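Sanity check

After download, print the first record. It should look like this:
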Amino acid sequence: MSVHRVPVVFVHGLWLHSDSWGAWAELFRENGYEPVAPAWPGEPGTVEEARRRPEAVAGYGINDVVDHYAKIIESFETKPIVIGHSFGGLIAQRLLGQDLAAAAVAIDAAPIKGVVYLPPSALRVASVALRNPANKRRAVSLTSQQFRYGFGNMLPEQESDELFERWVVPSPGRPLFEAASATFSSRSPAHVDTGNAKRGPLLLIAGGKDHTVPATIIKSTLKQYLSAPTVTEYREFPDRGHSLALDSGWREVADAVLSWLQKQSLQTTGSQGLPTHR
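Expected structure tokens:
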């Protein structure tokens, strides 16, 4: 009997390079999946090059990123599972709502349209870009101190600094402006088809101590899905910050995702039981 390896697409968020998914990809491959972690449009191939050429990603918005990943997914024989962190979590929900994914996991996902209240800590992080309107067309960087507040607040300072040096790159400011104006835009790219009754299952994950996307935002996101007759589940890691997908505790989160996918019958199967064919 032939073995079907379910494809998994990892989508990173702002300020992290796609290589930051390396440990997840290795774990998922060991568990029988076929993982890929594509870069955002314009993103250079290495962290070092991304830091040297911030203009390469400047100006890209949410729709650009969704379209970029949609084209990648078109090359697959089956619908993939999409796992996204931060703005990658918003992208994952967009792809799921458009029936391009078999299932999605959104980890500390940026707020979708319909989420109105943003706690002060989230506004503080977003202000890195929003305080200057010109940043909508630019790439925006974080300092190590800004990273520690937004990502590494639950980590020892040394670990936060090490993650900053290893993975942090400039990112386009445009997605933050688009998310900030979503409430006032009828055609906001942050809109997700939360009412799609045919979509696959969705897992929303929150870090209870996250400054960038506090758990209140994820719980508000969950409410947007309550009218849909589809699987939408919530999992909170109460003592974790925004770095939960890449810090030393990443394995706990990854194992929880693997267990959830198995529960949804989205694990590697034989040829008689392909769960994700188009």
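If your output differs, re-run the checksum step. Summary of this record's structure: The longest helix spans residues 250-263.
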